[in-house]
Amino acid sequence: MKPGEVxxxxxxxxxxxxxxxxxxxxxxxxPGAVNFQFNRADLAERAEMSLPHDLTYLIHAEPDPxxxxxxxxxxxxxxxxxxxxxxGLKQWKAEGLPTEAMPLLTVDELKDxxxxxxxxxxxxxxxxxxxxxxxxxxxEWTEPWAAMEAIESDKPLALVCGDQVRSAYVASxxxxxxxxxxxxxxxxxxxxxxxxxxxxxxxxxxxxxx
Amino acid sequence: MIMKQFRFEPLAQASYxxxxxxxxxxxxxxxxxxxxxxxxxxxxxDLGLTITGVFETHIHADYISCARELAEMNDVxxxxxxxxxxxxxxxxxxxxxxxxxxxxxxRITTIHxxxxxxxxxxxxxTDSARSNEPWCVLTGDALFVGDVGRPDLLLGDQALDVMDExxxxxxLYRSVKDxxxxxxxxxxxxxxxxxGSTCGGVNxxxxxxxxxxxxxxxxxxxxxxxxxxxxxxxxxxxxxxxxDYARIKSxxxxxxxxxxxxxxxx
Lengths: 210, 266
Fold this sequence. Notes:
Chain A is of the alpha/beta class. Chain A has 10 helices and 9 strands.
């Protein structure tokens, strides 16, 4: 689809799935896009675990051949995929359309301002129990669409996972819902590498049933 | 470091992905058209990596390269040794001998290893997450497992061939002996071809990986003590020429279009 067509579809409620890695996504993406990283091996399985079936999706992946393959996989898995953004962000920007960035934090920045954020850990609960940033809340990456109300917060959110793939997905769903969410780049791998403190006691907020 | 060897069995050709799991970036080395530019794009995406460059050890004569297409598809540079500028008819980004490229924590150092072709370069790979010593080397068609690249794929055009067969053989001997064999013994060797490939002689192993130490001891061609003995041995143990090599090389040099490779063969 041409950028203009994508923009029209988005105005009509379609969700752009941006399948690029979190780094380029955070730098710049189609406003409202959800970051859901591509991978042929388990894309269908991950989508089934987390993406709502009642939405219409558009794919943004670069270069285009990835988008075509992703469309095939998701369509086969029963998702309604209307098309993909031809020519990627380069084409989108060439037509003068706006983009959006995602706020990023390094683990050092987070550590220095821990009291200013509510840390949301998007790893699975067993990973969370094994060790997490003190005071953080567990919200498994599979649950963001239904569970967002559970994390109403007066502080900005800082999203964490092992690195930044699952957290970027959850952060993008939150950004889409106009929540103040930053992505902690490098995640627990960087946090542990720095020797920053971890807490092992379970502290899980379960999502309310929809 | 992430390293993936792609083997295209019908031509016994190996191409490579070298990437950094932290930076989430990767480069592709010696991509082959039979696999297709899209297959490299998908392989990198499967690993969550963004392709930031396409490298070639040299201008190939036995298979159609898709480096130009892959670089264009990803909007990234296509890297070749600077001396290729005298040969090819398309734009590329040149590197010099000893140039260093960083892909996150992974370092690629170029070593100009002419002989098989004048622009031929090997890539020494260092993973700074493990050590500052080199870990492996992509030897292209200079050093194979058990053999060396053939120095006789001449197009018959003096401007393109640059050196005659005997000079090329001597140059190759010096490249391997003085440059590749100067690397630490533990360094792993990853060639662009193996087994039945016609780019080397009859002693090529079907195993597409070795080490500098192993090749120093057991590579029959490199056991020869003088460049002249080496040249004679390489000539004696050469395989038949690759099919259509002149036309394939002409395409890879940008002298003819892809259609003309097969048209001319009919």
